[in-house]
Amino acid sequence: MRIARGVAEARRLLRRDSGPTSAVTGVGSQILAVEKILNQVRESGDDALRELTAKFDGQTIDAIEVPRAAFDQARDAVPARLIDALELAAERIRKYHRAVLPKTWIDHAAGYGELVIPVDRVGAYVPGGTAPLVSTALMTAIPARIAGVREVVLASPPTADGLPAPAILVAADIAGVDRVFRVGGAQAIAAMAYGTKTIPRVDVVCGPGSIYVTLAKRLVYGDVGIDGLFGPTETVVIADGQANPTLCAADLVAQAEHDVLARPVLITTSSSLAETVEREVTIRVQRLDRAAIATKAVEEQGCIVVVDNLDQAFALGNEFAPEHMCLMLENPWSYASQVKNAGAVFLGDFSYEVLGDYVAGPSHVMPTGGTARFGSGLGVRAFLKFTPIVGLDDATSAEVSKAAVIIARAEGLTGHAEAAEIRKELERE
What is the pTM of this model? Predict the structure, then answer.
């Protein structure tokens, strides 16, 4: 990993435009390819899905929807210990999202409130590829269910047997998904956004994916809601001199094995820790099943930054606005309030980011690419509409109408003013 010393050099290494183009930005040829796919699905529906699945996944599918019997077969094919682990994770995810669920509220005295209304139908996307993200089925569908969404559907690409990975089907079943479709990529996003004969049109599409999935989500936004645009994963570990270098290295390596564009970053006040972690990372990546991917991510995207103090560390971390920020500090709770921009925060040696990927409770679908400056992770709010409601009593209405008339006339909107004044005339009658 590259080691930077001082804030100026750190900023140079952490600049997001210094590496490969962000997945959210895309390039012209990829955008044109995705536009072509979207138009094909919009025009030809299920026939387009079959053609594109044969082209991109090498699978000939007749029925697009996964039959109910396949879920039972998947449970038989998946180890019991994995099912138990998914059940445990699902329960923690449910408890977390129930705890943060906003509720409708009305203040009758003030004459206003807010209706919290779930969308009707949600489409979740679960990537297949080299690392089928089984946990994503839980992390997308469960928050939608807790939000009160009436119907949750899920799309995931077929594997060699023509179905999504068995563990994905099991996770979808545990999460309470209503229907699963064996389609992937940009064509799956198009199908859920526009609807086909088999796949219903949804109100919100959620979930991470490849650059083609991300670009498809960007292009269908407006026809359908989306949870966000997600690029390669990223973690910033902020560590002091007392941090355990082995744990820091393990967490950075875990992040690196996701993708060659993953960004593992350590910011520390200790030069000796930086050097030890760098050596440990080099050793640990070689042991992985995905060693080639992790090595490339570490060498090309990873870096270690040595700063003078923790104020500088947090300033750099907040400026980078990572998906994950891990505080490997003595008494990390006392520093939590210094985090301003992060998708999620992990405190101490035993609240490590991998738990957030699977079982901690919050969704692992988090803002990337610096969007944590203004965005939040996927949760129940992504599936809710917040509708103000106004119901003033006569006395309150009369009191505030005077101000409304003054403001309306200042704006030159006499119709607005008269709509308020006519109420006064009705009172006199």
Answer: 0.93
